[in-house]
Amino acid sequence: MYRTFTRAAAAAAGLSLIGAAPALAQSIDEKVNQLFASSTGWFVNFIFSPFPGTSFPWIVAWLVIAATVFTLYFVFIQFRAFGHAISLVKGDYSDPNDAGEVSHFQALATALSGTVGLGNIAGVAVAIGIGGPGATFWMILAGLMGMASKFTECTLGVKYRNEYEDGTVSGGPMYYLTKGFAERGLPGGKILAVMFSIFCILGALGGGNMFQANQAHQQITGIVGEFPGWITGVIFAVVVFAVIVGGLKSIASVTEKVVPFMGVMYVLAALVIILMNADMIGWAFGQIFAGAFTGLGVAGGMVGALIQGFKRAAFSNEAGVGSAAIAHSAVRTKEPITEGFVSLLEPFIDTVVICTMTALVIIISGQLVSDPETGLYLVTDSGMIQTADGSSGVSLTSAAFATAFGWFPYVLALAVILFAFSTMISWSYYGLKAWTYLFGEGKSKEITFKVIFCIFVVIGAAANLGPVIDFSDAAIFAMAVVNVFGLYFLMPIVKKELHSYLARLKSGEIHKFH
Amino acid sequence: MSGKFVVGYDGSEAARRALDFAIERAAAQGGAVLIAHVLEWSPYSFLTPTELEERHKRRREELERAETALMAPVVKEASGKGAEIESVIRYGRIAEVLCEIARENGAGQIFIGRNGHSAWGARVFGSVASALVQTAPVPCTIVP
């Protein structure tokens, strides 16, 4: 979703602050940065450290290995259950008497609005910009594997959620780590749950909040020109406050309706561009396959393409991070496994469809410059592939779409702002759930977290907080360390559920209602 | 022909007229009236995470409110006019659910009131009446 591109973007936000505030504020800012960087740098370095002698971060390997293990353990469940997942989303198996309860579609749509965002637009551009077209192949592969991780965590999320007397529910890794470990007689569930919750709060404030605010501000300044980031921050914070504290449903429901519309529109625009260049589709896939195994001249060759692709998929769809398990827990179903099936569509839509669209548009629109004689891509000193107008990140995606529709960058900017907003709303909820897990439920405790969250919106939009963003990204991946570790111990429970469900589906005990 | 009539009821003036009209007919032939209230709902709408969490609770509250504020008074009032009165509350698309209720209960007719949208308004927002006449499994009476 985030951890996409650019420290330069964050730096630009910092510059705007300099423009607005006296040097004093700047030096305070620097001090905060230095203090924060020196005290948390070890953690960031640890999480993102590469295997010795390579540039391959171990955390990416951790997620890809987990996805592979779950894929094999559940015997390619993402392909076997794909059709059934679609039936479930359509409501074929929903009891009509449950109308008015949360449907599979609604749980999926809400979880998706938390993951579809900057990563799909800007992050892919970075991956392609460094790893070349070949990165797309590895990204799709990792996205397909990640479906099995989502399946595992979301099944557990529903199975071990808390259902309270007033009818509300709370679910997520902190609950299945505690209850699932206890059920299997394993020690340490509570410790894992507490660790997960701490990382989740930090990740929510950072990647799910500050980074989003920061990037939204970049988009706005890109259109109206430079102005201080705190202005964007305050506006965003007021709107977020109105939604999460004031319960202002109208804004939230407008966003929740506009965001899917934007997502569909983005994919349609990409499809139109691809079809307009139908004669290039074969060539583009040729580049993707050739690039995947040779690199076509990119920095690091085949391994370079592979790292970029894997990284992008893992960062974009959050499979294994545990965040989606929180969102999926509210569905109305007697069978936890059904939500697992539905959730495996999430990495498919996020990575295999939307990210791939972005990649194809960038490749087909000819943004990447290659040597006409050798067919190899030209790489700049910084390790990036040379682009037609020198752009990278979100501006590369923007430029690629602008080759077909001159007005598209404006729509894209609006989409990024809305995606950023909906991601913030989702993560404010994930953070809140972790917060109440640690400190207990209660109005004043919830308000405390929500106010902190809004303050961080302003900080995120206003300041150059590179180290803070690094740290919060690291926190999100630390969630994955804890979550995946727990999933390995809990996956036999999911397998039991799966076998029981499939047997009853076969016998006709579980049947379609429509 | 079955003696049961389904009446779509939402508390409006028009619904009231439809109900009175149906009761009169049912009483004349010694039949029953099933007052149906449908809460508009689509399983394909988009909700925030907080709305998801509270959905079950809200649903319960909505059903309670519909029962106490809307259905209980009207059932009380409609009883004793010569027709047997029953009531039902459901979620879904109004026209679709009314058809389902009619089918499940073996009803002979559906009655609804017309809320008097202009033709243009009905075209834009869709109209329960026109959806119903297109799809209903039994005869429909639209009471103006």
UniProtKB/TrEMBL annotation, chain A:
Pfam families the record matches? Na_Ala_symp
Topological category with respect to the lipid bilayer: Multi-pass membrane protein
Signal peptide span: 1-25
Q: Name one GO molecular function term.
A: amino acid:sodium symporter activity
**InterPro entries linked to this entry:** Na/Ala_symport
Q: Name one GO cellular component term.
A: plasma membrane
Q: Any idea which UniProt keywords this protein has?
A: Cell inner membrane, Cell membrane, Membrane, Signal, Symport, Transmembrane, Transmembrane helix, Transport
Q: Which residues cross the membrane?
A: 58-79, 121-141, 189-207, 227-246, 258-278, 284-307, 348-369, 407-430, 451-469, 475-494
Q: Where in the cell is it found?
A: Cell inner membrane; Cell membrane
- What coarse category fits the chief subcellular location reported for this protein? membrane
Q: Which domain of life is it from?
A: Bacteria
Family of this protein: Belongs to the alanine or glycine:cation symporter (AGCS) (TC 2.A.25) family.
Q: What is the recorded name of this protein?
A: Alanine or glycine:cation symporter, AGCS family
Q: Which organism is it from?
A: Roseovarius pacificus
TrEMBL record, chain B:
Which family does the record claim for this protein? Belongs to the universal stress protein A family.
| Species of origin | Roseovarius pacificus
Stretches assigned to the UspA domain:
1-144
Q: SUPFAM superfamilies from the entry?
A: Adenine nucleotide alpha hydrolases-like (SSF52402)
Q: Cross-referenced InterPro entries, in alphabetical order?
A: Rossmann-like_a/b/a_fold, Universal_stress_UspA, UspA
The name of this protein is: Nucleotide-binding universal stress protein, UspA family
